[in-house]
Specification:
Blueprint (H helix, E strand, L loop, with lengths): L1 H23 L6 H4 L5 H8 L11 E2 L4 E2 L5 E2 L8 H10 L16 H8 L10 E2 H20 L36 H22 L11 H12 L3 E3 L7 E3 H12 L5 E4 L4 H17 L5 H6 L9 E6 L10 E6 L6 H15 L9 H11 L7 E7 L2 H4 L2 H13 L6 H16 L2 E4 L2 E5 L10 H17 L8 E7 L2 E6 L3 H12 L7 E6 L2 E4 L2 E5 L5 E5 L18 H18 L3 H17 L4 H4 L21 E5 L4 H10 L1 H7 L11 E5 L4 H5 L39 E3 L5 E3 L16
Parallel strand pairs: 19-20
Antiparallel strand pairs: 1-4, 2-3, 5-6, 7-12, 8-9, 10-14, 10-15, 11-12, 13-14, 16-17, 17-18, 21-22
Helix pairs in contact: 1-6, 5-8, 7-22, 10-16, 12-16, 12-17, 15-16, 15-17, 19-20
Length: 743
């Protein structure tokens, strides 16, 4: 049965056995003496795990913290000092970070909690099981490097002309291959690292390392209260809160009642969509358009149901903000298809005439076009609800025209991309509450293919309408970032109005809003100004509803990340602001923003006087092996143990380039407030039952993986003691005794 388990659970389950063997080697202390200053009730409550840590493995917390005078403080409390002053500074001011448009009055502690920002990460408990998982992935990478060092990957047969392969598209399927363990230098290094890590874990269990928490006990209680409040909906304000559940549902229903865009369906369409995908993939595998590995990637065997939600547009209406519709389609059955089509369309989209990559690209075009005529007009246009107003027929035709201009793709490859795009658009379903819906027009915000698809449609519209218009000779600059357009018009106001009316009435459903001015206009995060001589200058633009949402300095993030944030923002200011005097004023404002978020002067004052140069270089960086670790205040100790014996590998394998440099420490963030408070699925709207797990059901019995010793029989089938192999249909739970008989 172990082979069935490995096939079903993959590398994660294979690695779990190794973790348990390692944990057995760790010294254990009796539970009654682990925290001698706790009572038995306190030990039971503390051993159950914190809501901020992982419940899958053992979580350990130091028995106490000490303040600067060395006095003991209870875990989770905050002593007087810099931390309290930082929290107070973030709460003062006339522009709060939280918009409370609900009927509930938030307490001072709840407001203080939300003022930290949804990106704030509370200090988690030290999860040894997660650390061991990450170490085993790292050790597996080292073994793979050594195992394949003498294998020439260039000997592979090149793919036939006109075939999409998984390797060429930059996509990959997860692998569960475990290399053999007969390379003695690697195994020696792993043994030494495990010994050192075991010593660190032992010291953590004994409470020898101080752990300063950034969350008070009252804030933990407030977080639990907000999490359990089902009538309160917390969302990140779009381009800017908390709102009532009833208003949130009413706003979403007002959008879903648009029968021109959404229609309700009576059942989950996943089985039918899966069959359509199989039919298309089988056809193009047979005519050698795709290989079998790419076919496997495009099939999601256990998809997650997409969920519909909205983000409030605070900048349009503060009291009753409209919602921006988004479909959370990560790991859905259409997600692999969208990733593949995005890979194909993105390089082609970047070659279109009006494409803008980002603000830096926009500034480059502005500087190259200055000066302009003093009588010219600055214009910005915005497409109203572009993603949901694109007709499928016109959008697919625009994508076809775009692909036809690509000479590197064969006819079958183009048709394959178009058929996948057709399924993504016409089978775009989602769940809201207890009702399934199908989107019959446009594309969903949240899909990987949505930006390139919208760009393809707008590029076709510009070729057919804008560039061929009789008044297009008055366009000095026409640049577009998806649905936001910047234009410099050299004609009169009357010709601009005529041009706008013509493009606004050309395509039914496609509507524009226009803003024009002779001196100043706002576009993206830039304010463009034209003086009397035609010279163009730029300044930083911030919407009136925007708030100081910079990462709080007390958040549990690596110190290098928090120290680099002021530098990156100062670089952004100096890149956008062209006037020297204005630039110094914006830098002071940015420094004040960081100070209000708790950043000390040592981090905010270093980069204010520096000169920005083009620091991007094309020189290749040395190859290094990455150790990916979920950040914790004890992570530097883990890093020290990882690199302590690295010279052993550098000397043993001089031909492996990655081993000649120390490993690259990469950190994943721990769970933040967004993970706890913001949910896409609001649950059932009625008391009717539905599947609680959004993932599709699997036939078979599988372990919960919470126990060290698990006797649950694993896999989609089992061998009956008196019959042949039987499936698990109808079996809820099966256990195998030592005698071999299953019950």
């Amino acid at each position: 049965m172990s082979h069935v388990w490995e096939a079903e659970r993959g590398y994660e389950a294979m690695m779990r056995d190794q973790v348990y063997k390692w944990q057995e080697q760790l010294p254990q202390r009796p539970r009654s003496t682990r925290y001698p200053h706790y009572s038995s009730e306190e030990q039971a409550s503390s051993s159950s795990g914190s809501e901020f840590g992982s419940h899958r493995g053992r979580s350990f917390q130091g028995p106490h913290n000490r303040n600067r005078r060395g006095n003991r403080t209870n875990p989770g409390t905050t002593t007087r000092g810099a931390t309290n002053r930082i929290q107070t500074r973030s709460q003062v001011g006339t522009n709060p970070l939280v918009y409370n448009i609900s009927s509930k009055t938030l307490t001072h502690t709840e407001m203080s909690l939300l003022q930290k920002g949804l990106s704030f990460c509370p200090t988690p408990n030290f999860d040894t099981f997660k650390l061991e998982q990450e170490l085993n992935r790292f050790f597996r990478t080292l073994r793979l490097k050594v195992h394949f060092q003498n294998i020439n990957t260039n000997t592979e047969r090149p793919a036939p002309l006109g075939m999409f392969t998984l390797k060429e598209t930059g996509l990959r399927n997860p692998s569960s291959y475990n290399p053999p363990r007969h390379h003695h230098p690697i195994e020696t290094y792993i043994t030494l690292v495990q010994r050192d890590i075991t010593s660190v874990i032992t010291n953590i269990r004994k409470g020898q390392y101080r752990l300063q928490h950034n969350f008070s006990h009252q804030e933990r209680l407030a977080l639990n209260s907000l999490t359990k409040d089902k009538e309160l909906i917390i969302k990140p304000a779009d381009k800017g809160g908390a709102m009532d559940r009833s208003y949130y549902i009413t706003e979403i229903h007002s959008q879903l009642n648009d029968n021109n865009t959404y229609i309700p369906i009576d059942r989950d369409p996943t089985p039918n969509i899966r069959q359509d995908i199989h039919n298309i993939l089988d056809k193009y595998v047979q005519n050698n358009t795709i290989d079998s590995q790419l076919q496997e990637f495009l099939i999601n065997h256990h998809p997650v149901t997409p969920v519909f939600y909205t983000l409030p547009k605070i900048y349009k209406n503060l009291q009753t903000p409209p919602g921006r519709p988004i479909v959370a389609s990560t790991d859905s059955i259409l997600s692999p298809l969208a990733k593949f089509v995005e890979k194909i369309l993105t390089p082609i989209i970047r070659c279109t005439r009006s494409f803008l990559l980002d603000t830096s690209d926009f500034l480059t075009h502005i500087k190259n076009s200055s000066p302009v005529s003093p009588e010219s007009i600055l214009v910005t246009l915005d497409v109203c609800s572009l993603y949901t107003c694109i007709p499928h027929t016109e959008g697919l035709q625009a994508t076809r025209n775009l692909l036809n201009n690509e000479t590197n793709l064969t006819h079958n490859q183009k048709e394959f991309c178009l058929e996948l795009l057709h399924i993504i658009l016409t089978k775009n379903y989602f769940l809201f509450g207890d009702q399934y819906y199908m989107q019959i027009a446009g594309t969903a915000i949240g899909s990987n293919v949505a930006p390139p698809y919208a760009n393809a449609f707008m590029a076709q519209f510009e070729n057919d309408v804008v560039y061929t218009h009789p008044l297009s000779c008055n366009i000095r600059i026409w640049k577009r970032f998806i649905d936001d357009i910047f234009c410099i018009w050299t004609g009169t106001d009357d010709t601009l109005k005529q041009f706008f009316n013509d493009i606004n009435t050309h395509t039914p459903g496609l509507k524009f809003t226009i803003h024009s001015d002779t001196t100043t206009i706002n576009f993206l995060d830039t304010q463009v100004t034209k003086d009397t001589t035609g010279h163009i200058s730029t300044d930083l633009y911030v919407k009136p509803t925007d708030r100081n949402s910079l990462l709080h300095y007390t958040s549990c993030h690596p110190r290098s990340v928090k120290n680099s944030l002021p530098k990156s923002q100062y670089c952004r200011v100096q890149r956008i602001v062209s006037d020297d005097n204005t630039r110094q004023s914006r830098l002071r404002e940015m420094a004040d923003k960081f100070a209000n978020r708790g950043y000390p002067p040592s981090t905010t004052g270093t980069y204010r006087t520096m000169t920005i140069h083009n620091t991007r270089t094309t020189e290749p960086k040395p190859l290094r092996v990455a150790f990916v670790n979920t950040y914790h205040p004890f992570s530097p100790r883990i890093q020290k143990n990882i690199t302590a014996h690295w010279d052993l590998l550098a000397k043993a394998y001089p031909d492996i380039t990655e081993f000649q440099q120390p490993p690259l420490m990469c950190h994943k963030r721990p769970p933040n407030l967004r993970d706890r408070l913001v949910k896409a699925d609001i649950g059932l709207l009625t008391k009717t039952s539905r599947q609680t797990l959004l993932a599709s059901k699997r036939k078979g019995t599988f372990p919960c993986l919470h126990c060290h010793q698990c006797s649950v029989t694993k896999g989609p089938s089992a061998t009956h003691p008196y019959r042949q192999k039987v499936p698990y249909e109808g079996i809820l739970h099966m256990r195998q005794l030592l005698c071999g008989i299953s019950y």
